[in-house]
Amino acid sequence: MIAQGGNAMTGDRKPSAINNAASSKASPKKLNRRKFLAKTGGVLAAGAFGAVPLRGWAADPINIGALYPTTGSMAQIGVGCVAAAKLAVDMVNEAGGIKSLGGAKLNLIVSDVQSDTTVTRTETDRLITGNKLSAIHGCYASALTLIASEVCERAKVPIITGSSSDQLNKGRTYTFTPFARASQFAKAQLQMAKLVSEQAKVAVIFENTAFGTSTSNGLKELAPGEGVEIVMFEPYSAGFTDASPLINKVKASGANTLFSLSYLNDLILIVRTVKQVGLNIAINGGSGGFVMPDFYKNVGNAAEGLQGVAHWNHDVSDDAQKVNVEFKKRTGEFAFEYAGGLVAQTFMLADALERAASADPKKVREALSTLDVSSGFAAMAPGGKVKFGPDGKNVYGRPVGVQWQNTDLVSVFPKEDARAPLMKT
Amino acid sequence: MWETLAQAVINGLLIGGIYALVSIGVTLIFGVVKIVNFAQGEFVMIGMYISFFLATQFGIDPLVSLVVSMPVLFLAGVLIQHFLIRRVLGPNDMPQIFLTFALSLLLLNLSLMLFSANYRTVHTSYSDAAWHIGGLYIPVAKLIAFAVAMALSGLLWVFLHTTDLGRAMRAASQNRDVAMLMGINPNRVFAVAFGTALALAGAAGSLLMPFYSAYPFVGQVFVLMAFVAVVMGTLGNVMGALIASLMMGVAESLGIQFVGADSGLIVVFALLLLTLAFRPSGLGARRGR
């Protein structure tokens, strides 16, 4: 524990509160109060000293907070996000850092929000109060991001996020969302269904949770306007043991396209059962777990031809493909939507810092609000342009339709982003 | 119409076989040791992870790994009975309830820590295969699971009715004190019962692996149905649990098919309440134990 205090002194940016709590826990049981105060006081002092920026000839590093669930039920994607965040910071730093600040390097401070909303609130607070941050990115999962963004708004630290919840664009001034919103995803799914068949007959099955119900209602509202007929609209209990009865119903409905608004495990069962039944139907699995490398590993060949939507894909531009190669080198998997999006987000922050010529979070927010890029890694989004409206939404943001083809996730929709034609299986 | 109905019944029976393995374990422990094992689902989960790792590390087919998962869990059951359960067997129920409940939470969180919350699947050649007969289809992996589950249940029945140890277990379940007076060693009988129940859970895990994902919470999905089947089939009655499990599977499937995809459990619990209203001690009560 004392070694950790030493780390704090040498400039390791671990929040001092952690060292403090850990050392008091590790203290021998028989401490009297005076000894306890002396010890914790010492560590506190060491932590405080460590938190003071070391003035020297090199430019001060710029602290970027990263809030991701690296443990708990959402850890799978969270861990991938952290790998991408590190890659992005390395890319910015290797390119010379922030030139207007004397080549200052970005310094990533990662905090685990443990897939838990309460922890997210306290961790965001702790991250902001314990460090001098210029900006934050996180948490990928909408439920967590909504909370983190509230804390950031109050502390006046800008947060840039890949979460798609439309709520993040309501009454917020420090929250920036460079990618497509949830409401745009539903529209893209319906338009893709039209590509498969002129007479699109869609069966919508959704788990009876907040996520499934709200997304499916969005689809139902938009369907008539897109000329898509919904022939089955059925909620199911999440976490079932057997998808066969549900697929039996889909078969009976005569649908030629199936929208499954499900979490990964249910979706795997659904896809396998469709294959077993021998049902010839186009499946759109939406986003989330479906567009992750793991999905193909779990489902295997049966994943071929399955469609989905994403806010980013690794083939949307040449820059994206470069990032994908680097990410693959580090993790062994292709860059999934949140990973690639995070690299773009980091470059957006770098662009803002460059123009702000300051590490002050309020000035970084100002610079983000006037961001307008159409080239480079910062513009690496479907559509290729990023400019934030007053609600923090990228005015050019749009989702990309994807399809599993030959073990790879390929962009197929809209035409401008497509790298391969949509297979009509 | 009859085709849809027949398919729904087939689907229900096949998944009911898996419910049966879990519920027979619960009912065996309750019948003999007289405690409710809340951790039974977690042992199914462990069985799944054993099969998963044997499949991914050594390329062993999940069905073959049955010969590993069953003995490993049998041994685990004997040890748990000897070192944990035995100490809390007494007139007071609360420590027993908390012990198995704590065991469930411990195993759940331990597996979250060790294996993370990721879904793990094993893809075998027969995972997606199905036999088509007329308009009906029968998934191969589930049919194998069902057949093995029924065979194991049959073996257990033979064991309970023809061997001395089996008879001793039945005797202990009917009246522990009298059984002890007849010279039956209750600790030995309890250990075998607990081990057998966990071995069945392990078997369920291995049989599930070709067509279901392993994740730390997976046991909870199956244990709920198991408890319903155990109550419906009369607590402690092995044959009752088996029949009730198959009924639950069919009821759930029919519910999803004809009532609504989110009403499978509604039908199951309605059936349970109806059963309890007319036969308060369950379907297996009249046979005697």
Q: How is this structure best described in words?
A:
The complex is a heterodimer of chains A (425) and B (289). Chain A has 3 domains: 2-49, no CATH class; 62-180 and 316-388, Rossmann fold (3-Layer(aba) Sandwich); 183-310 and 401-413, Rossmann fold, CATH 3.40.50. Chain A has helices spanning 2-9, 16-26, 33-51, 75-94, 117-130, 142-155, 182-196, 210-226, 244-253, 264-277, 293-299, 318-331, 337-356, 361-369, and strands spanning 62-68, 106-112, 133-138, 159-160, 175-176, 201-207, 229-236, 257-261, 282-284, 307-310, 372-373, 386-387, 400-405, 408-413. In chain A, the strands form 4 sheets. A 5-stranded parallel sheet of chain A has the order 2-1-3-4-5. The radius of gyration of chain A is 23 Å and the shape is globular. Chain A has 425 residues and is of the alpha/beta class. The longest helix of chain A has 20 residues, at 75-94. Chain A is 45% helix and 16% strand. Chain B has one domain: ABC transporter involved in vitamin B12 uptake, BtuC (Orthogonal Bundle). In chain B, strands 1-2 form a two-stranded antiparallel ribbon. Chain B is globular. Chain B starts with a helix and ends in an 11-residue tail after the last helix. The interface between A and B is large, with 38 and 40 residues.
Secondary-structure topology with pairs:
The complex is a heterodimer of chains A (425) and B (289).
Chain A: H1 2-9, H2 16-26, H3 33-51, E1 62-68, H4 75-94, E2 106-112, H5 117-130, E3 133-138, H6 142-155, E4 159-160, E5 175-176, H7 182-196, E6 201-207, H8 210-226, E7 229-236, H9 244-253, E8 257-261, H10 264-277, E9 282-284, H11 293-299, E10 307-310, H12 318-331, H13 337-356, H14 361-369, E11 372-373, E12 386-387, E13 400-405, E14 408-413
Parallel strand pairs in A: 1-2, 1-3, 3-4, 4-5, 6-7, 6-8, 8-9
Antiparallel strand pairs in A: 10-13, 11-12, 13-14
Chain B: H1 2-33, H2 40-58, H3 66-88, H4 94-115, E1 130-133, E2 136-139, H5 140-162, H6 164-174, H7 176-181, H8 186-208, H9 218-232, H10 238-258, H11 264-278
Antiparallel strand pairs in B: 1-2
Helix pairs in contact in B: 1-5, 1-6, 1-8, 1-9, 1-10, 2-3, 2-4, 2-8, 2-9, 3-8, 5-6, 5-8, 6-8, 9-10, 9-11, 10-11
GO cellular component, one term (chain B): plasma membrane
Transmembrane segments (chain B): 12-36, 43-60, 66-85, 97-116, 136-160, 189-215, 221-246, 258-278
Family (chain B): Belongs to the binding-protein-dependent transport system permease family. LivHM subfamily.
